[in-house]
Amino acid sequence: MLTPVNLLDFDVDGLVNWFAERGEKPFRARQVMRWMHRFGETDFGNMTDVAKSLRAKLAEEACIRAPCAIRDSVSADGTRKWLLDVGSANAVEAVFIPETNRGTLCISSQAGCALDCAFCSTGKQGFNRNLSAAEIIGQLWLANKLLGGSASPAGSKDGDGEPDNGRVISNVVMMGMGEPLANFDNVVTALRLMLDDHAYGLSRRRVTVSTSGIVPAMDRLRDECPVALAVSLHAPDDALRDRLVPINRKYPLRQLMAACQRYLERAPRDFVTFEYVMLDGINDSDAHARALVELVRDVPCKFNLIPFNPFPNSGFDRSSTERIRRFGGILIDAGIVTTTRKTRGDDVNAACGQLAGQVQDRSRRTVRLVKSMEGR
Ligand code: SAH
Ligand code: SF4
Asked: Where are the domains of the chain?
């Protein structure tokens, strides 16, 4: 028997093509799309407005399969973290962060990460593989279902769920495990589903890709699927950034700043968010803050300061609250909107950079990744 095709791997155009190859009309693909993503349905037999013969054909050839949650932890602050099985002894994590006016889901794009940033526990585990589009969108699919956000087909409340399009998850950030732009095609397929009205219908402003700065892929994202952009900066000069974020050796700050400016020509927001992890005695002095102000002079931006989240043997400490306040004060005095990220969910290791999942390291990281990117 043929392996069934997982329909979660397709964006709308992909599904329309797959249906066309089987002589089915585009509207059929869109119907199935809605059942899968809006209603969280996995059984073709329940797709009542789809012709019976097509339902039977789909049941033979296809499946709808998201990763399974192997652990579900809830933090005292309401943050919820799922450990998801992605096969071959690999697991990745997705985190839901409820706030008063929004619910943000943080999702992963790779099992591990090859970029090996000095302060990141995901990077320390090494890289195993890219997640498929189904595994990426499957995190949103699953969280939506488990949080009761899937709409019911009739548009009414279903059980303890929210009303139609309840928007339990109002924002998605690709800030979990992995470097999204190193898994470009699958990430873009998943992003298109997040934005599509037949699937999740989120606005571009509410979907954020966070990158450590893979410059050519930033340009491609701008052209193919511009969503809100966050860039992990972490240092104001190349010497320090080379140490903390090794991909900087390939795409140094001058190129990165220029790419941010190009991105803003198409971005759904009129600023880039710079993320900056606060490492005690490493990148957190007044002089670093002043150098940052110079560096980003021509890039409309906001700053998000992230207190370092420790993990065993990291070799770094978190900057003190007072230091972070003074550092932020210098940016604010220069007219840059600056926030300090609240550390959420750290009692269940769900805070930034604590996402470790479980990864079977197969490759030796940066060198290999940089080489593979040279061909692009
Ligand atoms: N690979 C992407 C997205 C995932 S990391 C990127 O690097 O942007 C999401 C954010 O968490 C990044 O800004 C990253 O630098 C930050 N981060 C990584 N490890 C951290 C840690 N231990 N403490 C705080 N933030 C961390
Ligand atoms: Fe990868 Fe981002 Fe961690 Fe760097 S910070 S190792 S790019 S996940």
From this structure: 5-63, 68-374
Annotated binding residue 120: yes
Residue 117 is labelled as binding a ligand: yes
Output the CATH code of domain 68-374.
3.20.20.70
Residue to probe by mutation, ligand 1, list 92, 109, 110, 120, most atoms within 8 Å of CB:
120
Q: What is the pTM of this model?
A: 0.91
The verdict on whether 93 is a catalytic residue reads yes
Q: Torsions phi, psi of 31, nearest 5?
A: -60, -50
What pLDDT digit, counting tens, does each position of 216-242 carry?
A: 999 999 999 999 999 999 999 999 999
What whole-number distance in Å separates Cα of residue 25 and Cα of residue 346? 48
Determine the residue of 95, 184, 187, 210 to mutate for testing ligand 1's pocket, defined as the one with the most ligand atoms within 8 A of the Cβ atom: 210
Assess if CATH 1.10.150.530 describes domain 5-63.
Answer: yes
Active site residue 225: no
CA gap 181, 191 in Å, rounded: 12
For residue range 75-115, list pLDDT tens digits in order: 888 899 999 999 888 899 999 999 989 999 999 999 999 99
- Give the Cβ contact number of residue 266 at 10 Å: 12
